[in-house]
Amino acid sequence: MQQNIQLMLSFDANKDGTVSRDEVDVGLKAQFDAADTDHNGSLNLSEIQAENARRWQRNGTASSPLIDWNQDGTVSFAEFSGTAHSVFGELDRDRGGTLAGAELVAPRVRGVARPAPRTPPRAGDAGD
Predict the structure, then answer these.
(1) Rounded CA separation 78/29 (Å)
(2) Contact call for residues 88 and 104 (beta carbons, < 8 A)
(3) For all residues of the chain together, what is the average pLDDT?
(4) Spatial contact of 89 and 100, defined as CB atoms under 8 Å apart
(5) What is the pLDDT of residues 6-50, one digit of tens each?
(6) What angle do CA 99, 102, 104 make, to 5 degrees?
(7) CA-CA distance, 75 to 68, in Å (whole number)?
(8) What is the DSSP letter of 69?
(9) Vertex 78, ends 74 and 84: CA angle to 5°?
(10) DSSP assignment, residue 19?
């Protein structure tokens, strides 16, 4: 969850602590354009491999690799932006089109209550 929040905060261009869908789209477009080295509007196999290598170096096993979902040999902007758009939708709990406040704070995980220590039965207790 924290990684998803950090991803969204990376798109907060004006650093106001609120992330709009427009900010996410502008950031994703800049990332896509940087990966699209031949500037043809889609990523070919070598561009996909280079972007996946960059993501792996930055995030290791937590990275989200690009996948050619429609198997046309390229990754479109829609395929490129799918993960980030999905994360945005998941975090935008009030469906307001922006992420702010509690939406950008990871919920605290409460510890599991430990059972009371077992005491051995005493002589004369039932069950002896």
Answers:
(1) 10
(2) no
(3) 89
(4) no
(5) 999 999 999 999 999 999 999 999 999 999 999 999 999 999 999
(6) 50
(7) 5
(8) T
(9) 120
(10) E
Indicate the pTM of the whole model: 0.78
| Domain-located, residue 44 | yes
d(CA 81, CA 73): 17
Question: How many domains is the chain built from?
Answer: 1
| Residue range 94-103, pLDDT digits in tens | 999 999 999 9
* Residue of 6, 19, 18 lying closest to 106 (CA atoms): 6
Q: Would you tell me how many other CB atoms lie within 10 Å of the CB of residue 98? A: 16
How is residue 65 written in tokens? 């690799």
Is 23 part of any domain? yes
Residue 90 lies in a domain: yes
Q: Token pair 């829609």 is at which residue? A: 78
Residue in 90, 109, 104 with CA at minimum distance from that of residue 6: 104
Helix 77-91 × helix 2-9 angle, to 10°: 120
Helix (H) or strand (E) holding 98: strand 98-99
Domain with 24 in it: 2-104
- CB atoms < 10 A from the CB of 28, how many? 19
